[in-house]
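An example makes the point: we let one protein speak, the chain in one-letter code, the fold tokenised, and here it is:
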Amino acid sequence: MTSSTSLSRNPRVRVTNVELLSSAWYVLRRTTFDYQHGDGRWTTEQRETYDRGNGATVLLYDLQGGTVLLTRQFRYPVYVNDHPDGMFVETAAGLLDTDDPETAIRREAEEETGVRIGELEHVFDVYTSPGSVTERLHCYAAPYDPADRGVGGGLAEEGEDIEVLELPFTKALEMIGTGEIADAKTIMLLQWAALRGPFRPTAVRMQ
């Protein structure tokens, strides 16, 4: 994340103070800044930002078989906010840590799904919760060969218990409507795949 001392790109924002509230797991800060509104007046504002680092995710697909490879694992934050059982269906993903995005998602995909990615396509970068979370998510897509799949399942030493789901692409799209897939990054990548990606009608007809 950019440091507060270098935040001079927008002349309508003047950071005056940054307080560290928590760094037990990731970093929570409260920032005070002066903001110039569209009518020219200045006000003093405060915002809390949660910095967990940036991440990467990938939609793994088999165009010939018409399938996608997703994961299912327990996510406590969604469990406490009305998700039925916390078992969340999503694309393979993880934090960058000290790696570049491509290296990180290759690592995460192999750990979670057992797929060693070859060709990798960058799709877009998104901020999924811009009101409070600093994370920028690098989104990719990559083909996989079912014959080359490894075990996956995540890293036991990190407490991961990940189920790998191979689903028909049409079924995955239906699961958005039923609420079985409620993860933002996964929904965006599935819809991209249907509209502009490997499962767009013209691409499927070319196979």
About this structure: The CA atoms of residues 147 and 175 lie 26 Å apart.
